[in-house]
Amino acid sequence: SDMGLKDYYKNYFPVGVAVGPRNLAGPEAEFIIKQFNSLTPENAMKMGPIHPQENQYFWRDADSIVNFAQHHGLRVRGHNLCWHEQTPNWIFKDSLGHQVTKAVLLKRLHDHIQTVVSRYKGKIYAWDVVNEAIADDKTQFLRNSPWYQICGEDFIAKAFEYAHEADPKAVLFYNDYNTERPEKLERIYRLLKKLIDAKVPINAVGLQAHWSVYEPSATELRNTIEKFASLGLKVQITELDVSIYPWEKERRELRPGEKGEYTPELEQKQTAKYKEVFDVFRQYKKDITGVTFWNISDRYTWLDTYPVAGRKNFPLLFDTNLQPKKAFYEVTNFKK
Ligand code: G3I
């Protein structure tokens, strides 16, 4: 058919995809334009890749994504401004290799955000300002990252203030994973409420949605959306994929016999999970302002090497030949 995902969902929300520069030429480029109307750079705008040295920015990859989007009328979500991963080596250290002070680190964060956000002002409509600041350990509140060790909690509010100063019209997000797990939901809620009470310019929350055929349940997802919406925040699904394996983040070894076989039973489970979550997304269209997939098709997914290498994953709506899977037909089969 001539209809892409974005067309089925035109009365609901933009449908996006995470890309790198290599996806923007050849058959994949055509495919992106047909299916999606929003792009997120998978890696190109993260602090390490885009700001490798203190006074040196690397714009080529990020620019190529933004230019492609402008040319074809797609939106861009900026990803991301402050995270504990993919940070450049220099950011936390002075020239002697000692840890910098809070004042120096906040100044660097300010310069970074000011430079990156203003470069794309008017071309990037939304930014993931702070990514994954909540701890994985449920007995902790914030993640014990260098940002936190050096600045305490303040870096979060500051990052939002700097982004707002650089582009007052950009929609500013806090973005995280496992947002549907009740104990993490509580802690994220607590952080967001604190920011809002302190009048920090935050508009929305991103549910990364690195899900699996086993979780979350529709009820957990509804609770999550309602809880964030109750704070007056918009919600986006920012990094959607549905792993065929249960999530065990700390795994480093393949289990014996585990080769990554995509059985009909697993595909059926996955199709059902995709249908279930898209039914919820449509129900909450007043709160949900975008749904973005983390990668284009099962040909390439970050889950092929994470959390364990050596097993293939098949987490997306299109197969390794860019053909729609059962789940695609299921999520596009609804009364418009
Ligand atoms: O570019 C270098 C290359 O020069 C080097 O030779 C090679 C050797 O390891 O690494 C390449 O960098 C890799 C980079 O992806 C680009 O391919 C990094 O090792 C690798 O760690 C990095 O992984 C990315 C990951 O974020 C970083 O933590 C994934 O592609 C990307 O999909 C993933 O995305 C994150 C979101 O930003 C935030 N939410 C979770 C999501 C999944 O982890």
What features would you highlight for this structure?
336 residues; alpha/beta; eight-stranded parallel beta barrel; 11 helices; 9 strands; globular; binds ligand G3I; EC 3.2.1.8
Layout of strands and helices, then pairs:
Blueprint: H1 5-8, E1 15-19, H2 27-35, E2 38-41, H3 47-50, H4 60-72, E3 75-82, H5 102-119, E4 126-131, H6 146-151, H7 154-166, E5 171-176, H8 182-197, E6 204-207, E7 210-212, H9 218-229, E8 234-243, H10 264-283, E9 288-293, H11 326-331
Helix pairs in contact: 5-7
Bound molecules: ligand G3I.
Notes on the protein architecture:
Helix 5 (102-119) packs parallel to helix 7. The chain starts with a helix and ends in a 5-residue tail after the last helix. The chain is globular and about 55 Å long. 36% of the residues lie in helices and 15% in strands. It is of the alpha/beta class and 336 residues long. Strands 1-2-3-4-5-6-8-9 form an 8-stranded parallel beta barrel, surrounded by 5 helices. The model has no long low-confidence stretch (mean pLDDT 97). The protein has helices spanning 5-8, 27-35, 47-50, 60-72, 102-119, 146-151, 154-166, 182-197, 218-229, 264-283, 326-331; strands at residues 15-19, 38-41, 75-82, 126-131, 171-176, 204-207, 210-212, 234-243, 288-293. The site of ligand G3I has 8 residues, from loops.
Q: Span between N and C termini?
A: 16 Å
Q: Helical element count? A: 11
Number of strands: 9
Q: Which consecutive residue ranges, at least 5 long each, have pLDDT under 50?
A: none
The largest beta-sheet arranges its strands as 1-2-3-4-5-6-8-9
Give the overall form. globular
H-E order: HEHEHHEHEHHEHEEHEHEH
Strand content: 15-25%
Q: What molecules are bound to this protein? A: ligand G3I
Radius of gyration: 20 Å
**Which structural class is indicated by helix and strand composition?**
alpha/beta
Q: Biggest sheet: strands, sense, closure?
A: 8 strands, parallel, barrel
Protein name: Beta-xylanase
EC number: 3.2.1.8
Family: Belongs to the glycosyl hydrolase 10 (cellulase F) family.
Active site: 239
